[in-house]
Specification:
The complex is a heterodimer of chains A (596) and B (175). Chain A is an alpha/beta fold and 596 residues long. Chain A folds into 5 domains: 4-111, Glutaredoxin; 129-339, NADH-ubiquinone oxidoreductase 51kDa subunit (Rossmann fold); 350-433, Roll (Ubiquitin-like (UB roll)); 438-527, de novo design (two linked rop proteins); 540-595, Alpha-Beta Plaits (2-Layer Sandwich). In chain A, strand 10 and strand 11 (363-368) form a beta hairpin. In chain A, helix 7 packs across helix 14 (322-334), helix 11 crosses helix 14 (322-334) and helix 22 packs across helix 23 (518-527). Chain A starts with a strand and ends with a strand. With 175 residues, chain B is of the alpha+beta class. Chain B is built from 8 helices and 4 strands, in the order H-H-H-H-H-E-H-H-E-E-E-H. In chain B, strand 3 and strand 4 (152-154) form a beta hairpin. The model of chain B is unreliable at 1-12 (pLDDT under 50). The chains are: A alpha/beta (596), B alpha+beta (175). The A-B interface holds A 237, 275-280, 292-299, 313, 451-455, 557, 559-560, 579, 581-583, 586-587 and B 1-3, 37-42, 45, 72, 75-76, 79-83, 99-101, 103-104, 141-142, 144. The complex binds flavin mononucleotide, iron/sulfur cluster (2 copies) and FE2/S2 (inorganic) cluster (FES). FE2/S2 (inorganic) cluster binds at residues 9, 11-14, 46-50, 53, 55 of chain A.
C-alpha cells in the first residue's frame, strides 16, 4: 500500500512542456530519500488544463500543482510529500482562491463540468489495464455478452439518445441498427474515427491518451451489436503518444482475453487493428477514411450506398467517433434513462470541447449539453484576459461558424447551434475578442480547406480557391461590394454541389461571419478599414508626436528604414516605405507607436 | 496537400543508397503482412520509416513484391502529405522569404545557401545532411533577414554569415 499517489500528466500538452523530465526527477528524488515504497508515481492522461502544464496532482490531499519545473521537484518532495506542507507558490491558482486550498472539483474550472467521456482521463494510468478494470472497465462488455441480445444492446443505445460526436450528430443507435441485418451471414466491420483533423481540437487525442481501453471496449460492444468480428481504429500519425497507448492497450486486452476469440466464454470473437493516417484532413470523412484503410488515395465517394450497406472492403460497416465510443460503456452500466436525463430534449449527454483562443483557461472541458456559452466562457473559461470584450466563439472549425455575443445565452446543443448558423462540430471552440478580425478568420479557415481539398470534385477544388482569392482581395484592401455578392453566391453554389462534407461545409465560416459581422466586411471594402486592426494593408503605422521621446530605438529596428527622425525629437514613419511588419510597435517603450 | 510540393520533390535526384539490410527489413515486413487486407499504407509507412523517404527504387520494390501497379503506389504516395518522394536532410534549413526579410535581402541569403549546398528548393544534399526550403514569415521581422535550421533561429543575417552557420552543423555532424 502506498500512503500517497502523485499523478503526473502524460498527455501531449504536458509531455511537450516537460512532464517526462519531471517524472524522472521525482522518481530519483523519492528513491534517494527512501520514499519510493510509500509514494507511488503514476503517469496519467490529460487533466484538461494543458495551458498550465506540466500538471501534477497529489492524492489523497488533492493538491494540484501546475507549471512544475524540474527545479521544483526537490521542494515538493521535501516540503509536501515528506513534511505535509503543500508548496503554495506552485498550486494551481484557482485551487488556492479564498486562502484555503480547494479540491479540484471545487474549482470554477471543474465545478460546471460533468465528466462522462473523460471520466478516467487524469485519474488512471492508461498503460495499465488493471486500473481501467478497477474503474468498472470491461464490465459493460461482460454484461452485454452474457446478459443481453444484440438487439437489446442497440435498443439501449437508441433509448439513450446518444448522437455522434464527430460532427454531424447522427443518432448512434440508428446507425448501428442500419448495419445490424444478416448477422452472422456476412463479414462486417466496426471502425473508429480517430483522425481528428480540425485545427485546434484535441478531445479525441486526450481520450485515446488518457483512457484507451474505453474505446476498445465500446468497439467490441458495437461489434457484438451489429455482428462484426473485426475492428479498425484509424488514427492520425501526428498523435504518437495516442498510437503507442493504443498499441499497449490492444496488447493487454488480448492478453486478458478481452479481445480475441471467445470473449467472456460467450462465443463472440472480436479483434482490433490500428491503422495510421498519413496527413490528409479529408480522410476524416467517412467514405474517404474507409478508402484510405483499404490502401488507396483517401478520396471520398458518393453516398448512397451508405457504409451501413457497403462500407469497408464493400462490407457493411459502422464508423463512430472516439468520443461517441467513450460514452457507450457508461450508458450500458448506468442505463439509457440516466444518460437521457442529462442534456436537452434532442441532445443527450455531455460534450467535450477544446477551449482555446482569447480565454483565460484554455484546455479541455466536458459540459452537459444545454450549458450556455456564457457559462463556458465566463465561469469555466475564466473570462477573456486583458479586460477585452467577447466578440464571438467559433465552433466546428473549418466546417463550422461563429456564435456572436447576441447568442451568449443560447444553450449549446446540436440543433440550437445549427439554427444560428454554426454547428457542434467535433469540439473545437475558439474564443475571439474585439481584436479578432472576422474576415481574417474566415480567410484562415478557407486557406485550410483549399489546402486540404482532395481535388476530386470541381465545386470544392476551384470554388473554394475562388472564394479565398476574393477574401484575399478584401483583406488587402482591393475588395468591392460586388465581391461580397459574388462571395455569397459562390458559397451557396459550393454548398449545394460539392461531393463530400468537406466541400459542402467549407463555405460555412464565410457565411456565418457574413451573417453576423457584415459591417466588418463592408468596412473592409467600402471604407478600406479593418476595424480590428488585423489586416495589414488596411492599416497605417503612426507615431504619436506627443508620446515619442526620440529614443531612436524603433528607427534602428525597422527592417526597411521607414522611420526618420533626429535623436530626442519625434520620429515619423514614411507610409510609402513602411511594410507594416509591426517591429516598431513591439520595440517602442513609450507606447508612442499606434495603428490606424 | 502533398500534391503541391510534389513537383519540387520530383526534381530531386539523390542517388539511392539503400542497403541490403534495409531491403531485408522491408521484405520481412511485407511478407509478414501478406494477404492482409489493405496493407499497402502500413507497408509504405514502414518503408518510409526504414529509408526516410520513398524513392522510386523503394516504390518499385513494393510494387513487385506486392503485385501492385507502380502508378497506384505513386498515387498513394503523392496523396498523403506525410510521404516524401525525396529525402529530407538531417538539418533542415529554411530561409524566410516574407516581405520584411525579402526587402532586407533574404533572396541573396537564400541563394548563398543554395550555392554552398548545391541544392535548390525542397532538395537535399547527397550526403543527407542538409535540405533547403523557403518559408513564409516566421514572425521575427525585427530580426530580418531570418533563417532557421531545425528550429534554431538566425537573425540579421548577411551573406557572409551563411558559411559559418553551415560549418557549425557540419561539425556537429562529425561527432
Ligand atoms: C472533411 C471531414 C472531416 C471529418 N473529420 C472527422 C474527424 O476528424 N473525426 C471524426 O470523428 N469525424 C470526422 N468527420 C465526420 C465523419 O465523416 C463521420 O461523420 C463521423 O466520424 C461519424 O462518427 P459519429 O457518428 O460517432 O460522429 C469528418 C467529416 C468530414 C466531411
Ligand atoms: S468536396 Fe472537396 S474534399 Fe470532398 S470530394 Fe470534393 S474536392 Fe474532395
Ligand atoms: S511597421 Fe515595420 S516597416 Fe513599418 S515602420 Fe514599423 S518597423 Fe518599420
Ligand atoms: S496534456 Fe496535461 S493537462 Fe492536458
Amino acid at each position: 500500500m502506498f500512503r500517497c499517489h502523485v499523478l503526473l500528466c502524460g498527455g501531449t500538452g504536458c509531455t511537450s512542456a516537460g512532464s517526462r523530465e519531471i517524472k524522472k526527477c521525482l522518481e530519483k528524488e523519492l528513491k534517494e530519500r527512501g520514499l519510493d515504497k510509500e509514494i507511488a508515481v503514476v503517469k496519467t492522461g490529460c487533466f484538461g488544463m494543458c495551458s498550465v502544464g506540466p500538471i501534477m496532482m497529489v492524492y489523497p490531499d488533492q493538491v494540484l500543482y501546475c507549471t512544475v519545473q524540474p527545479e521544483d521537484v526537490p521542494e515538493i518532495v521535501e516540503e509536501h510529500l515528506l513534511k505535509g506542507r503543500p508548496v503554495k507558490r506552485l498550486i494551481y491558482d484557482e485551487n488556492m482562491a479564498g486562502g484555503g486550498i480547494r479540491t479540484l472539483e471545487d474549482t470554477e474550472f471543474y465545478r460546471k463540468q460533468m465528466r462522462v467521456a473523460l471520466r478516467n482521463c487524469g485519474i488512471i494510468n492508461p498503460e495499465n489495464i488493471e486500473e481501467y478494470i478497477a474503474r468498472d472497465g470491461y464490465e459493460a462488455l461482460g454484461r452485454v455478452l452474457t446478459e443481453m441480445t444484440p438487439d437489446e444492446v442497440i435498443q439501449v443505445i437508441l433509448d439513450s439518445g446518444l448522437r455522434g460526436r464527430g460532427g454531424a450528430g447522427f443518432p448512434t443507435g440508428l446507425k448501428w441498427k442500419f448495419a445490424s441485418g444478416r448477422r452472422g451471414e456476412v463479414q462486417k466491420y466496426v471502425c473508429c474515427n480517430a483522425d481528428e483533423g480540425d485545427p485546434g481540437a484535441f478531445m479525441d487525442r486526450s481520450v485515446l491518451e488518457g483512457d484507451p481501453h474505453v474505446v476498445l471496449e465500446a468497439m467490441a460492444i458495437a461489434g457484438y451489436a451489429i455482428g462484426a468480428s473485426q475492428g479498425y481504429i484509424y488514427v492520425r500519425a501526428e498523435y504518437p503518444i495516442a498510437v503507442q497507448r493504443l498499441q499497449i492497450a490492444i496488447g493487454q486486452a488480448r492478453e486478458y482475453g478481452l479481445l480475441g476469440k471467445d470473449i467472456f466464454s460467450s462465443g463472440f470473437d472480436f479483434d482490433i487493428e490500428l491503422r495510421l493516417g498519413a496527413g490528409a484532413f479529408v480522410c476524416g470523412e467517412e467514405t474517404a477514411l474507409m478508402t484510405s484503410i483499404e490502401g488507396n488515395r483517401g478520396e471520398p465517394r458518393p453516398r448512397p450506398p451508405f457504409p451501413a450497406v457497403k462500407g469497408l472492403f464493400e462490407s457493411p460497416t459502422i464508423l463512430n467517433n472516439v468520443e461517441t465510443y467513450a460514452n457507450i460503456p457508461q450508458i450500458i452500466l448506468n442505463g439509457p434513462e440516466w444518460f437521457a436525463s442529462i442534456g436537452t430534449e434532442k441532445s443527450k449527454g455531455t460534450k467535450v470541447f477544446a477551449l482555446g483562443g482569447k480565454i483565460r483557461n484554455t484546455g479541455l472541458v466536458e459540459i452537459p449539453m444545454g450549458t450556455t456559452l456564457r457559462t463556458v466562457v465566463e465561469e469555466i473559461g475564466g473570462g477573456i484576459p486583458g479586460g477585452k470584450k467577447f466578440k464571438a466563439a467559433q465552433t466546428g472549425g473549418p466546417s463550422g461558424g461563429c456564435i456572436p455575443a447576441e447568442h451568449f445565452d443560447i444553450p449549446i446543443d446540436y440543433d440550437n447551434l445549427i439554427s444560428i448558423g454554426s454547428m457542434m462540430g467535433s469540439g473545437g471552440m475558439i474564443i475571439m475578442d474585439e481584436d479578432t478580425c472576422m474576415v481574417d478568420i474566415a480567410k484562415f479557415f478557407l486557406e485550410f480547406t483549399v489546402d486540404e481539398s482532395c481535388g476530386k470534385c470541381t465545386p470544392c477544388r476551384i470554388g473554394t480557391k475562388r472564394m479565398l482569392e476574393i477574401l484575399e482581395k478584401i483583406t488587402e484592401g482591393e475588395g468591392t461590394e460586388e465581391d461580397l455578392a459574388e462571395l455569397e453566391e459562390l458559397a451557396y453554389y459550393i454548398k449545394d454541389n460539392a461531393l463530400c462534407g468537406l466541400g459542402q461545409t467549407a463555405p460555412n465560416p464565410v457565411l456565418s461571419t457574413l451573417r453576423y459581422f457584415r459591417d466588418e466586411y463592408v468596412a473592409h471594402v467600402r471604407d478600406k478599414k479593418c476595424p480590428a486592426h488585423v489586416c495589414r494593408n488596411l492599416l497605417e503605422y503612426k507615431i504619436s508626436a506627443d508620446k515619442c521621446r526620440g529614443c531612436t530605438l524603433c528607427m534602428r529596428g525597422c527592417p526597411v528604414q521607414a522611420i526618420q527622425g533626429k535623436a530626442k525629437e519625434p520620429h515619423v514613419i514614411d507610409p510609402q516605405k513602411c511594410i507594416k511588419c509591426g517591429a516598431c510597435l513591439a520595440t517602442c517603450r513609450f507606447g508612442a507607436i499606434y495603428m490606424e | 496537400m502533398s500534391n503541391k510540393s510534389m513537383g519540387l520533390e520530383e526534381r530531386k535526384e539523390v542517388p539511392f543508397q539503400g542497403t541490403e539490410q534495409q531491403r531485408e527489413e522491408l521484405l520481412g515486413f511485407i511478407h509478414g503482412h501478406a494477404g492482409q487486407k489493405g496493407c499497402l499504407m502500413p507497408v509504405m509507412q514502414k518503408a518510409q520509416e526504414i529509408y526516410g523517404y520513398l524513392p522510386q527504387e523503394v516504390q518499385k520494390l513494393i510494387a513487385d513484391e506486392m503485385g501492385i501497379p507502380m502508378e497506384k503506389i505513386y498515387g498513394v504516395a503523392t496523396f498523403y502529405s506525410q510521404f516524401h518522394l525525396a529525402p529530407k536532410g538531417k538539418y533542415q534549413v529554411s530561409v524566410c522569404l516574407g516581405t520584411a526579410c525579402y526587402v532586407k535581402g533574404a533572396g541573396n541569403i537564400y541563394n548563398k545557401f543554395s550555392e554552398l549546398l548545391g541544392i535548390g528548393e525542397g532538395e537535399c544534399t547527397s550526403d543527407g545532411m542538409f535540405s533547403l526550403d523557403a518559408c513564409r514569415c516566421v514572425g521575427a521581422c525585427g530580426l530580418a533577414p531570418v533563417a532557421m535550421v531545425n528550429g534554431d533561429v538566425y537573425g540579421r543575417l548577411t551573406v557572409d554569415d551563411v558559411r559559418g552557420i553551415l560549418d557549425k552543423y557540419m561539425k556537429d555532424g562529425e561527432d
